[in-house]
Amino acid sequence: MTAVPRKRADARRNEQTLLDAAAAAFVTSGVDAPVRDIAFRAGVGVGTIYRHFPTRADLIVAVYRHQVEACAEAGPALLTDSATPHEALARWIDLFVDFLITKHGLPEALRSGDATFETLHAYFLDRLVPVCDTLLAAATTAGQVIPGVGAYQLLRAVGNLCIGAGSDDRYDPRRMTALLVAGLRAQ
Amino acid sequence: MTAVPRKRADARRNEQTLLDAAAAAFVTSGVDAPVRDIAFRAGVGVGTIYRHFPTRADLIVAVYRHQVEACAEAGPALLTDSATPHEALARWIDLFVDFLITKHGLPEALRSGDATFETLHAYFLDRLVPVCDTLLAAATTAGQVIPGVGAYQLLRAVGNLCIGAGSDDRYDPRRMTALLVAGLRAQ
DNA sequence: TGGTAAACGGAACATGGTTCCGTATGTTGG
DNA sequence: CCAACATACGGAACCATGTTCCGTTTACCA
């Protein structure tokens, strides 16, 4: 038995305060919000942030974990609820897009080669690639989607298409991802 | 007649040296290469860079101007050389993608909301949107492409799909843009 | 209640963009 | 050829941000 020493009360309190502060900062300044801003909002020193969340990726993952889980869990449900596997795929991707475009700077962070965001990248992949793969495989088996496009590549393309969403009303990421999914269709 | 005072010889020389140094730095470190690196390569002080190219965008535009012009001029030629307008569009977009994926960080810069890159963004749009629009219009008129997708939006989507190219061999921007263009096709 | 380890705060450091001004140099009229 | 002037140069200094480190504070437990 490894005795699990419970964290101190102030530490637990600060962790929650930081999550709230970060979530608020992310909304107004995007996921690149300056560390000092987040610390100030939470009323703590910057050292406290780094103690709880060693990298920015850890903080981002913690803030959005619930929403990513929800998106992942929606996959199988859509597969049974939709008329066709291709429709299920399209609807699931819409869900993913809706999540991404409301998080300023998140798609950029997911794509940046920056080692800081490695954890973030890995978490999204671990959680979403298998789901996407299931949907994609179902659609391919049903002969509705051309073979040879992996779940990873598709997700990455969708993520890319969501970059800069909201900063320009002439660009509609939903429309463009829909076009991409249409291109997947076996004619 | 506004007398045009010719620039000093050293200034002209430095401008060319800087262009060469920047081009080299962009190849190895991407278009975000530190200003000090570029200055060092060129053997000048950082002040000299800012005097010749007030923003990074000016430098990037100057370095890639020829290639962008070439891409723009290829549009009309492709339209007459190709079997169908849709094929011309597809080939032109391939050309654009080939240009982008060899310029590390350029697609990212084009999309960043950063005001520093405003000039860059504007230059690409000025030069390429009209060309793309011509191709798109021809394909639409021929009934080969669904209406309602503007040249700006298409170019932006293609640019986005090229972000991070080369950093990950599981992701193929050419393939993804081809899928997007396939999705444009009127069935 | 006192001792200890956990946690905290924020100063200090590293990096990279940007500005500014004293100095050096090309250019031109005499 | 020279002097005087405007142009251009160099790089120190400044600012913004991420990151580290350590002296101080505080929660917990005996």
Automatic annotation (TrEMBL), chains A, B:
InterPro entries per UniProt: Homeodomain-like_sf, HTH-type_TetR-like_transc_reg, HTH_TetR, Tet_transcr_reg_TetR-rel_C_sf, TetR_SbtR-like_C
Ranges for domain HTH tetR-type: 12-71
Record bears the keyword Transcription regulation: yes
Keyword DNA damage set for record: no
UniProt KW keywords: DNA-binding, Transcription, Transcription regulation
One example GO MF annotation: transcription cis-regulatory region binding
PROSITE patterns cross-referenced by the UniProt entry: HTH_TETR_2
DNA-binding region(s) from the entry: 34-53
Protein name, entry field: AcrR family transcriptional regulator
Species assigned in the record: Actinoplanes campanulatus
Lineage per the UniProt record: Bacteria, Bacillati, Actinomycetota, Actinomycetes, Micromonosporales
